[in-house]
Amino acid sequence: MLYIRLLAAAMSLAAPLSFAAVTQAEASWDRSAWEQQVAAERDINELGRLYLELTLEQSPHNSVFRGLHGTAAEPTRYDDRMADASPVARASFDSARETLLAKLEGIGASALSRSDQIDLHILKKRVELHLFNSRELGSGASPFTWSSALSTGLSSLLMRDFAPLDQRLSSLGKRCAATGDYLGGVKASLAPDDVLPTEQHKKTALAQLGGLDRDGGLFDKTIPDLLASSSLSDDQQRQILEDCSDAREQIKAFTAWYQATVMPREASEWRTGKAIYDRQFDLQNDYYLTPDELLARAEQALEDNNRELEALARRIHDAYLVEEIEAGTYAPAAEQSDQAVVRNVFAKLSEDRPTPDSLVEDSYALADGIIAFVKDNDLMDLPPATKLRIEPVPPQLSGNSVAFIQTAPAFEPHLESVWFWDIELLRSAPDYLKEYNRTMLAIVYIHEGVPGHFVQLEYSNRAERLIPKVFFNGPMVEGWASYITTQLVAEGYTVYPNHPLGHELQQMTDIKMVLRALTNAIIDLKLNRTDWPEEEALALMIERGYQQPGEAQGKLGRAKMGAVQLSSYYAGFLAIEDILAEYRAKKGDAFSYKEFNERLVGAGSPPFFAIREFMLEDE
């Protein structure tokens, strides 16, 4: 799973971009001056830079994830600010987007280079998507939008050493001082009686607000501890503590208002419906198959992979469980159903699993074997894994995904990537960690870290072109991590190299992960586009995807949080497999995975029509 600021572009290895050199924003953002620059600008890349400026002015809490902290005039402008969450501000930014979109639609693509044509396409889609989210999906009326921005704004400055600690703490103090005004804007957005968020958004936002106020968390431990280790003067420390203490009280007061005012309201329908979903799918995935075509491919692949998993489990069941069969715990495979045979194997595999307290250490322990396998099999050149840090997610960011990564920002590629495990979420349901046995832990390391998201980002951050680097394609990002995981296992990787059935056990877990991507897509497509019952979605994940009930319930919760993203794993995996088949046919005997893999991630993360062109063009 990726909450990444990842991306991409061409093969050239350019120096990192400096935003100070690409924005003309002065001390206070002047929309009129910005629109004049848009009107005068002819270069697609520069229009992309102007849009990036707009997004940071509206959402300064994303500064750390972009690696852009301010402007030439104000180097910490974004780090020092919280967003204006009021309806008036949202309407103004939407209007500015309309201005840019009109400019983009007036550009004649035929006169552009192919690279600029692709960049124009990406930029138009992204501006349209942001307008769609605001106006059709009502993102401004979702408390989760604002609780996430608040959590991110108050925690992100402390999660990476992108600047001296004193500077980051000073910026945090300014964000704390601005929290009251920010929450005032949120109240204005949520106060109208006709604002009816979904139940899942209401509950998740409340949990995030609670995470911010948690004992032993950001306000009463992290901030005081960091201030004590800083070089700030006593007066500066005292002011930051006062501002952040006030912010905490503002959050408590807002939470009480929210519980009394918003939580009791009737919840709106979380299903988007077919028309809205299909429009969002087009804007967000920019994909070569329709939702109906993707669903048909996913349902057929689910059948195929289930048959493969069942056959593999039958082949190894009696040998792997010989002691259990002799003890009478399990009957031989011939006496059991296909699903029972599969579940028996997974039940024994789940016995070798980490505890919540050992999860981070156990994840690190997998690194050497995976890296060595990639190198020994010449699958691709790797960046140093020392740039990848693994740690528990901060409490205020907990509750939405078991594992995710925040990769090094596109504009600060020298920084570390951080892979987070949500330890508290895993503790919350006893069967959660059964899902993350040793073989699955290796799969997650490959997917999130090496050679998955982390490696893709390191390649992508070398790219020159700004637009695909910043406004990335979700299916390409998730598809790479899913594809490369399956490739490693197909080439022979296993976490149990000395076990006689080690590779078969790893294969079973990989197929289970493929089934997870398939069920993700199916539940996303069917829940949102039809009235398919939630109970059937859970049954599909548990019975056909072999997920633990806790994992399945968590995924259902994610499906209710928003449409389309869950379809991106299989969509990307399928697209890469389709391109791989064409690429292999073209190369014939000259084909090598190393060349394919490095070319693929070197292409960055534009939509798949551009990826396919790049991969299959003559070199």
Automatic annotation (TrEMBL):
<feature type="signal peptide">
    <location>
        <begin position="1"/>
        <end position="20"/>
    </location>
</feature>
<keyword id="KW-0732">Signal</keyword>
<dbReference type="InterPro" id="IPR010281">
    <property type="entry name" value="DUF885"/>
</dbReference>
<protein>
    <submittedName>
        <fullName>DUF885 domain-containing protein</fullName>
    </submittedName>
</protein>
<dbReference type="Pfam" id="PF05960">
    <property type="entry name" value="DUF885"/>
</dbReference>
